[in-house]
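Continuing the batch. This is chain 6 of the set; chains 1 through 5 are on the previous pages. Same settings as before, nothing changed between runs. Recording input and output for traceability.
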Amino acid sequence: MEISIKQVEQQQGTLNPLKFALWISLASISMLFAGFISAYMVRQAAGNWFEFVLPWYFTASTMMIIISSVLAHLAVEQFKKGKERLYKFYLLMTFVLGLSFVVLQYEGWQAMLASGIDLKANPSGAFVYVISGVHVAHVLAGLAGWVVAMVHGFGLKFKPTQKRINRLQLTAQYWHYVDILWVVLFLFLTYYR
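Output for chain 6:
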C-alpha cells in the first residue's frame, strides 16, 4: 500500500510544516550559492584570474552524488512498497556514496594544493575551495539526516507509517537538492571560464 505525502496534505488540507520549512531552507541555500556565483563572475571579470582544470576527483564525486540521489529515491519507493531488504540496501548505499562524495571532494582539494592552487595564490582557486567547501558542509548535513534514517531503518521495527514516510521523503528531497546544486556548481566551475 503506497501512501504519498500529497495524499496526507489533501486529507489535512494544509501543507506539511516540515516540508514548508525545508523549502524555505532550500531557498536560503540557493540565495547563498547565487551570491557565490555572482561574486565569482564579478571577480573573474576584474582580471588577475588563473585558469586551471578541476582535478578528476570532482568529476568522480559528481558521479557519486548523482548515483546516491537515484538510490535515495529508490529507498523511499521501496519503503513505501514495504520491501524491507531493498529499502535498507538502498538506504545504506545512499549513505556510502554520499560519504564517497565528501572523500572525493577532499581528494580534489588535496590535488589542487599539490599543483600549487591554494586559498591565497589566486582568487580563482579560493572560489573553488569556498564554493565546494560550503557545499560539502550542506552534504554533511544531509549525511546526518541519512544517519538518522539508518538508525530508524535498522533500529526500529520495519513499519512504513505515514510519519516515517514523510521523514524519509524530506531527507531524500534535501538530498536531491544538494545533488542538483552540486551538478549546477560543477558545471559552472568547469565551463564558466
